[in-house]
Amino acid sequence: MPSSRPQWSKRSLTAQAMGHVDPITKAVVPPIHVATTYIRDEDNAYSSGFVYGRPDNATIREAEEVLAMLEEAGAGALLFSSGMAAATAVFQALNPGDHVVASKVMYWALRSWLMTEAVRWGLSVDFVETDNLDALRNAIKPGRTKLVWIETPSNPLWTITDIAGAAGIAHAAGARLAVDSTTASPFHTRPLTLGADIVMHAATKVLNGHSDVVAGVLAGGKADAFWEKVVSIRKMQGAILGPFEAYLLMRGMRTLHLRAGAQAKSAMTLAERLSAHPKVARVLYPGLPQHPGHDIAARQMEGGFGFMLSIQVTDGEAAAIRTAARVRLWKRATSLGGVESLIEHRASIEGPGTPCPPDLLRLSTGIEDVDDLFQDLDEGLRAL
């Protein structure tokens, strides 16, 4: 690499996958390394740095290097086989009896895991509205709380938690702060620079951006004993991402800045237009000035307010479901962050106990023409 690399912007480094060129073929696209085992040296050592495919892989290392750069992660980044594998590894690194405070509104599968499986690990978990720092502070149990887990913007209500404020509360109690920043991505928010200790992404979403990879990532602020436990958990449980998936993720991340910027711009346009729609009772999007977390979001997010928004339909749950059934350009599917726009009635998916209002539709804005996206929603809503 040229010595001038540190002067390159994150956008340039990401677009060129850190500028790696294959030393043998001189290809500008990194090759896929699929080997599971490696030759020892004559003295029985591994001078290449690679021993076996379960804990490490050259293709995965290259993708992790890009992610660590994007997040400004002092400890580096770890790729996992899914977002859930990445998230649960953090909780599994805690000790039995430890107390966790987590966002009340968060990814439903992780919330379900914390409510059921975490108990089997001997953890105690309290869910609070972490956008209320007083509520977060009051939930801390001195001497017992070891981890504060926040999701911001939260899925699917898009509430905003003050990351720096939450970090101060966690650290004052001797706890770590972990941030699920999936819907922000490092294009919009870098939690480690705001005081967080660990940031997690479901890399399946906007980091990859093409709805063809399931992956998760953790980025650490510093390589302390806790981080090493997380590294060991991935190694011993075999939760590493596959090399082909890492290759596809790298491919997707090269256009992250273009996609995330365009998607956020379209989401903002849709939020503004839908706010005036007669069939929409409420738009949930932190980019709107009337959003309760707008000022905090403006302070800790860059390049827009993300690609996700939700709407509450004026005529209630049945009307919301019918709207999702009538649209044509928007696709009725789970997930988010891809180049295609997705719509989903979240209460039906999450089931009993969901904090999601029954009249709510979650929208993941893709890269299609924003006028087409609005017209499709408008026709679906007016058809009611």
TrEMBL record:
One Pfam family it belongs to: Cys_Met_Meta_PP
GO cellular component: cytoplasm
Keyword Transferase part of the UniProt annotation: yes
Keywords: Aminotransferase, Pyridoxal phosphate, Transferase
InterPro entries: Cys/Met-Metab_PyrdxlP-dep_enz, PyrdxlP-dep_Trfase, PyrdxlP-dep_Trfase_major, PyrdxlP-dep_Trfase_small
GO biological process, one term: cysteine biosynthetic process via cystathionine
Keyword Aminoacyl-tRNA synthetase: no
Cofactor: pyridoxal 5'-phosphate
Positions of post-translational N6-(pyridoxal phosphate)lysine modification: 205
GO MF term list: cystathionine gamma-lyase activity; pyridoxal phosphate binding; transaminase activity
UniProt record similarity statement: Belongs to the trans-sulfuration enzymes family.
Protein name in the entry: Aminotransferase class V-fold PLP-dependent enzyme
Organism for this UniProt entry: Microvirga alba
